[in-house]
Design brief:
nine-stranded antiparallel beta sheet; six-stranded mixed beta sheet; alpha+beta; single chain
């Protein structure tokens, strides 16, 4: 059912983007008759309604974008015209055996589910790890970020990375995509090298099959530019535990040796390190090892970052006030931030399933932002030296956390660095200092000839020159050609999905 709410003031969940939209539109899985719908009927109602809405937007020349949890910190997701709230398209479905393609691996059939676009990572964890039916096995996501509030499509489309050192970022578990873009009917996209569903199933959900490696890999990380993704087919895993021993404290030399040792990663599921740039040779190492699932273990305490009894939380207005006090040095402020991070956001001395461990609802309220970039693990130590010096030069209050990820296949996957990517993240007061510092770092990377890429959902500076710097002209061309192919070269439809973000990046122009 669709509800049009008219003109509304809107902001993302972290209050880093505020604007007025012409129409804020809600869509859910209910229907006017109040009937109970089957799996196929739910999928068809959602995709059919959205595709017709897109066609209406084309006729009226209205920009349209879909939002889920509004989790992105950048302006990647927004439009001034029609903003479609898909958060209540949050069902997850099993797949009947007869729906699978003959070539799809038998051992993966019970691990595959179809997830609607609005289901959050937290909701998906509950569905997979706590099945309602005895016929369903306990499963879990192959990888996840530390938070659970993002919708599955939002997290994948912005390339949320997690820290799965031997698997990759979230896009890697997606094997099929249902997309609505205002052309004749919804589109079901698979890789031509990896067929998943029979044509009979695709016909049942009123979709057109597209099997193309380049198109699939381009749509994976496309931040709403190809249309509205209404569902994913995702491959999950048999449920397992991750064991996190107590955080280790190591020096830079030892850290560098570990990061460049291929054998080090073999037994790890999750790897990150945290450091205060004002501490010369001190790093906190967080290692998670995949172990067998065991019944009856106590539930771990969930990670939350929320206001405490004194009203303090990293990112709220009080924090902005404290971090802007000119008479407190950046070093002292960073010590405060480090203490809060180690207390609230680090997994240490704990064991649990991914759904039990990756639960943080990280709230950056007004006045705070977060940014992230990825480089090769081969360049990690050089990057550490650069960010430390830049932080000290600017006297900024910062704490850096870095997570290691196996590279993936998405055309614009920002974690596609070999042999593995290391993603550096840091929170910063949301003032003019944020883009200034980010630009300073990128210029330093360029001077040192370090290949980098920026997190699509967090960064402010992805312009056309930096885009080619990050991915190369050939990948930019592949992505643009894929977009035009899916829109049948109909620029009037593509135009309604163009927003300021795409224009800055130069992705609104023909290939």
């Amino acid at each position: 059912m669709i509800r049009r709410n008219g003109k509304k003031d809107w902001n993302n969940i972290h209050v880093t983007v505020k604007q007025t939209v012409e129409d804020l539109i809600d869509i859910d899985n209910s229907n006017p008759e109040g009937l109970s719908l089957s799996r196929v009927e739910i999928l068809n109602q959602a995709s059919g309604s959205i595709n017709e809405m897109i066609k209406e937007a084309v006729l009226k020349k209205k920009g349209i974008r879909a939002i889920g949890s509004s989790w992105a910190l950048s302006h990647i997701q927004v439009t001034e015209n029609w903003l479609l709230n898909t958060k209540l398209l949050n069902e997850c479905f099993e797949v009947d055996p007869e729906w699978f393609h003959d070539d799809y691996p038998e051992d993966k059939k019970k691990l595959l589910v179809i997830a609607q676009c609005g289901i959050s990572i937290g909701e998906l964890n509950v569905y997979l790890e706590l099945p309602k039916s005895k016929d369903q096995m306990r499963r879990c996501l192959k990888t996840a970020g530390i938070g659970a509030g993002q919708t599955i499509v939002g997290a994948v489309s912005g390339n949320t990375h997690g820290a799965a050192v031997n698997f990759g970022a979230l896009p890697e578990f997606v094997v099929a995509i249902q997309l609505c873009n205002g052309t004749d009917k919804p589109i079901w996209i698979e890789r031509n090298t990896y067929p998943v569903m029979r044509q009979e199933f695709i016909d049942t959900i009123n979709s057109k099959l597209v099997m193309d490696e380049d198109i699939f890999n381009s749509v994976l990380v496309s931040f709403g530019a190809f249309g509205v993704i209404t569902a994913f087919a995702i491959e999950t895993d048999n449920i397992f535990h991750i064991n996190f021993p107590k955080v280790k404290e190591i020096n830079q030399s030892d850290l560098g040796s570990l990061l460049t040792d291929p054998s080090y990663y073999s037994k790890l599921q999750h790897l990150e390190f945290v450091f205060n740039p004002y501490e010369d040779d001190h790093f906190y190492l967080i290692e998670g090892t995949r172990v067998a699932y065991e019944e009856g273990l106590p539930d771990p305490k969930p990670l939350w970052i929320i206001t405490n009894k004194t009203g303090y939380a990293v990112g709220d207005k009080l924090t902005k006030f404290l971090l802007n006090l000119f008479f407190i040095s950046g070093k002292k402020k960073s010590n405060i931030l480090l203490g809060e991070y180690l207390k609230n956001a680090v997994l240490t001395g704990v064991r649990g399933t991914p759904g039990q461990l990756y639960t943080a609802t990280v709230t950056y309220l007004e006045g705070y932002n977060e940014t992230a970039f990825a480089v090769s693990t081969d360049d990690a130590i050089k990057i550490i030296q650069i960010v430390k010096q830049a932080t000290k030069d600017k006297n900024l209050p910062l704490v850096f956390q870095a997570r290691i990820v196996k590279p993936g296949s998405a055309t614009f996957g920002f974690t596609n660095h070999s042999p593995r990517a290391v993603v550096f993240e840091f929170g910063i007061v949301n003032t003019s200092k944020y883009p200034e510092f980010e630009s300073l770092l990128l210029n330093k990377f360029r001077e040192e000839n370090i290949h980098y890429s920026l997190h699509w959902s967090k960064n402010s500076l992805v312009d056309s020159s930096r885009l080619e710097e990050m991915y190369g002209p050939s990948n930019v061309l592949i992505w643009k050609k894929s977009r035009y192919a899916l829109f049948n070269n109909q620029s009037e439809i593509m135009d309604i999905f163009n927003n300021e973000h795409l224009k800055i990046a130069g992705l609104d122009t023909p290939p």
